[in-house]
Amino acid sequence: MDNTYLSPAERRVLAEQALQNLGADRHRHILVRVRCPRSHHVAIVYDTSEGPVYRTQVGPHAHGSRDFVDLGHHGRRSGTEYVDLLDAGAFAEDVLPARCECGNRSLSRAELRGTIDEHQRVIQVP
């Protein structure tokens, strides 16, 4: 599919729907897991019917069943999910937002695409 002329909002809606279509067995469709040097989860790229979909959580969030985010009363306990089509067209920004416990990060669409082409399953970002 040619995603060149989709707006960023349209791409993200399409990506969210593609992830939902994977259902409960989403883990079987993982192309690449992205981790930081301390092995925190940074992002995941899934193989979907719309092509590779990038998923991460930005903002403060817990990473395991016993991890808690230190927030005030009525604060959100999870970060905001960010999804986008990895192959977003020539006019899309190359930089994708990401976050782990170490802080905010930026990932490159082109580098993630290269990782998939090289059949790497897990990558570590600096």
Describe, in plain words, how this protein is organized in 3D:
The chain has 126 residues and is α+β, with helices and mostly antiparallel strands. The chain has one domain. The strands form 2 sheets. Strands 4-3-2-1-7 form a 5-stranded mixed sheet, with helices on both faces. The chain has a two-stranded antiparallel ribbon with strand order 5-6. Strand 2 and strand 3 form a beta hairpin. The chain starts with 7 loop residues before the first helix and ends with a strand. 23% of the residues are buried.
Task: Kindly list the characteristics that best describe this protein.
126 residues, five-stranded mixed β-sheet, single chain, two-stranded antiparallel ribbon, alpha+beta, globular, 19% helix, 2 helices
Spell out the blueprint of helices and strands:
Layout (H helix, E strand, L loop, with lengths): L7 H15 L7 E6 L5 E8 L2 E8 L21 E6 L9 E6 L2 E6 H9 L4 E3 L2
Parallel strand pairs: 1-7
Antiparallel strand pairs: 1-2, 2-3, 3-4, 5-6
The main pleated sheet reads as: 5 strands, mixed
Q: Output the strand order for the largest sheet.
A: 4-3-2-1-7
Query: What's the Cα radius of gyration?
Result: 15 Å
- What structural category do the secondary elements indicate? alpha+beta
Counted by DSSP, the helix tally is 2
Low-confidence stretches: 65-77
Domain tally:
1
Q: Secondary-structure element sequence?
A: HEEEEEEHE
- Quaternary structure annotation: single chain
- The percent of residues in helical segments reads 10-25%
Number of strands: 7
Overall shape: it is: globular
Task: Name the beta content range.
Answer: 25-35%
